[in-house]
């Protein structure tokens, strides 16, 4: 099909001044899987009277149009609210001060956020997410361009916390900054809100959509002719890659490619590429993709097995609720055996026994159900669901021990530590001491307990020197990130760092987080 000579004004504005393919531009994000959905508007070249000359294919004359320049880019009001200050939880809820970053520098804060890890420790994962979505004044040297917001959102995306990232972006406003909107657009692609995101893009001319994105959005809106014309123009100008060309061509006219093999996905797979593969009937598995992609499998468009496996990954990261996992596990009867089906079967049999109040059946089924949850590191959501009702039963043997330890993994850990289900041995006494905030005089049953013990020998724990210096400068957020990093380092083998990190949490007044993290370390055995 030949390229049309008369191009839509919106397309002319988009292409104005582009002298090289968009893919030649280096992405600005530290996350390599973000879609290149928008680009900074390029300055248009012309005679100064509004005339724009487009690059032409080798066998076609140049196309010119009058008055097709993009509209002016939006500007921020001096002294207006900074997107970096956006947050979902006020200080009254988080317990963090409003001046969370104190005397810290923006570059140091964003670097600390980017380096934060809390894998496998549910309490630290929750604490990190809370820090990222807290309302707080940005560092004094923040320029109001959203760099701190972007760093926080990028970390949420890395953690798989899409709902929190989406809400934070909405709070900050997404249509006035290209880099912020890119993240909002990708979250929408993974949560099924791409049509609304395309509408925002269409109504915000300061956001310059790339041609791939424009083709996708035009097709989603039902304007197939404009989408096809845009793709043909992009092909002629060399502004789409070979894979994008093949995928978009199939997306617009699948009948032309019936029986032909679909091209292998590029690396990295972006949310936009993932959504296009789904649209052409060739969905890509998310199991080997970044955690954020697992949210796309929670929709009703995915099969139950895919939903279950995605929910398990997200539950392990602590970014979906225990009730969401419960709902999926009990949705229907398992379709087969092995893998996820065995977990569903064990979960459902235990749930039925507990619901029916059958003590013998609970004692028989709890150990297997808990072991299956441990296989996918979902012990904490399992405990959140069942620890309290189990504490009311007169369990014995292995089931009693498991139920008591589940209580220590639950929000009611302080009360349930005194449950008669406790085995009462050296290990149990040490765990109960951690729940109460002191292990002074108690024997440490293993190497992890010996690493933890120095942080809980008294009411107050001395913070490590680096942490104390941050606290003195009011850099509470950075001190919290340091505590997380110290504990993570300890898990990788340098166990002395575990006590330093826990002591720093206590020095920050985060007593509950310190105790629950210590219990996670003891009960979950997440060693590096």
Keywords:
52% helix, two-stranded antiparallel ribbon, 528 residues, two-stranded antiparallel sheet, single chain, mainly alpha, flat
Mean pLDDT figure: 85
Distance between the termini: 57 Å
**What strand line-up does the widest sheet have?**
1-4
What's the number of extended β-strand segments? 4
**Class computed from helices, strands and strand pairing:** mainly alpha
Largest sheet: 2 strands, antiparallel
Strand content: under 5%
Total of helices: 25
Shape assignment: flat
What is the share of helical residues? 40-55%
Radius of gyration: 27 Å
Order of helices and strands: HEEEHHHHHHHEHHHHHHHHHHHHHHHHH
Low-confidence stretches: 1-29, 41-79
Folded structure, characterized:
The radius of gyration is 27 Å and the shape is flat. By secondary structure, it is mainly alpha-helical. The chain has 25 helices and four strands. Helix 7 (178-191) runs antiparallel to helix 8, helix 9 runs antiparallel to helix 10 (224-237) and helix 23 runs antiparallel to helix 24 (496-507). The strands form two sheets. It has a two-stranded antiparallel sheet with strand order 1-4. Strands 2-3 form a two-stranded antiparallel ribbon. Mean pLDDT is 85; it is low at 1-29 and 41-79. The chain has helices at residues 9-15, 91-94, 106-114, 122-132, 147-159, 162-172, 178-191, 194-202, 211-220, 224-237, 242-252, 271-279, 304-316, 322-329, 340-355, 359-375, 379-391, 397-408, 413-416, 426-436, 447-452, 465-472, 476-491, 496-507, 511-524; strands at 38-39, 51-53, 64-66, 208-209. 52% of the residues lie in helices and 2% in strands.
């Amino acid at each position: 099909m030949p390229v049309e000579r008369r191009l839509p004004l919106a397309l002319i504005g988009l292409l104005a001044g582009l002298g090289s393919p968009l893919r030649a531009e280096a992405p600005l994000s530290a996350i390599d899987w973000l879609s290149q959905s928008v680009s900074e508007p390029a300055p248009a070249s012309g005679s100064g009277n509004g005339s724009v000359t487009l690059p032409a294919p080798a066998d076609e004359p140049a196309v010119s149009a009058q008055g097709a320049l993009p509209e002016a880019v939006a500007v921020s009001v001096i002294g207006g609210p900074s997107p970096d200050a956006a947050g979902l939880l006020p200080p009254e809820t988080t317990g963090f001060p409003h001046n969370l970053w104190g005397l810290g520098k923006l570059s140091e804060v964003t670097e600390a956020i980017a380096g934060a890890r809390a894998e496998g420790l549910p309490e630290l994962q929750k604490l990190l997410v809370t820090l990222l979505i807290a309302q707080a004044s940005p560092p004094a040297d923040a320029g109001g361009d959203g760099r701190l917001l972007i760093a926080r959102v990028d970390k949420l995306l890395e953690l798989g916390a899409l709902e929190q990232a989406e809400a934070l972006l909405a709070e900050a406003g997404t249509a006035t900054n290209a880099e912020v909107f890119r993240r909002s657009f990708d979250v929408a692609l993974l949560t099924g809100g791409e049509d609304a995101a395309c509408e925002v893009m269409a109504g915000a001319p300061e956001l310059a959509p790339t041609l791939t994105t424009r083709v996708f959005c035009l097709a989603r809106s039902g304007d197939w002719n404009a989408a096809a014309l845009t793709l043909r123009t992009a092909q002629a100008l060399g502004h789409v890659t070979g894979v994008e060309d093949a995928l978009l061509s199939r997306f617009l006219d699948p009948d032309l490619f019936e029986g032909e093999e679909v091209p292998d996905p590029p690396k990295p797979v972006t949310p936009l590429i993932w959504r296009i593969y789904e649209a052409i009937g060739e969905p890509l598995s998310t199991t080997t993709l970044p955690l954020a992609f697992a949210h796309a499998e929670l929709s009703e468009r995915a099969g139950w097995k895919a939903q279950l496996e995605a929910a398990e990954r997200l539950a392990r990261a602590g970014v979906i609720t225990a009730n969401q996992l419960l709902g999926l596990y009990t949705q229907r009867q398992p379709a087969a055996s092995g893998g996820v089906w065995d977990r569903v079967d064990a979960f459902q049999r235990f749930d039925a026994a507990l619901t029916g109040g059958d003590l013998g059946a609970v004692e028989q089924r709890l150990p297997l159900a808990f072991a299956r949850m441990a296989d996918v590191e979902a012990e904490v959501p399992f405990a959140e669901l069942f620890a309290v009702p189990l504490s009311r039963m007169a369990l014995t043997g292995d089931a009693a021990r498991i139920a008591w330890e589940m209580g220590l993994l639950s929000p009611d850990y302080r009360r349930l530590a005194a449950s008669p289900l406790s085995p009462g041995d050296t290990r149990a006494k040490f765990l109960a001491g951690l729940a109460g905030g002191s292990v002074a005089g108690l024997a440490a049953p293993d190497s992890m307990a010996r690493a933890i013990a120095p942080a809980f020998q008294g009411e107050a724990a001395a913070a490590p020197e680096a942490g104390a210096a941050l606290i003195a400068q009011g850099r509470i957020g950075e001190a919290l990130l340091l505590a997380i990093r110290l504990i993570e380092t300890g898990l990788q083998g340098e166990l002395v760092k575990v006590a330093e990190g826990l002591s720093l949490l206590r020095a920050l007044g985060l007593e509950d987080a310190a105790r629950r993290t210590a219990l996670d370390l003891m009960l979950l055995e997440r060693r590096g």
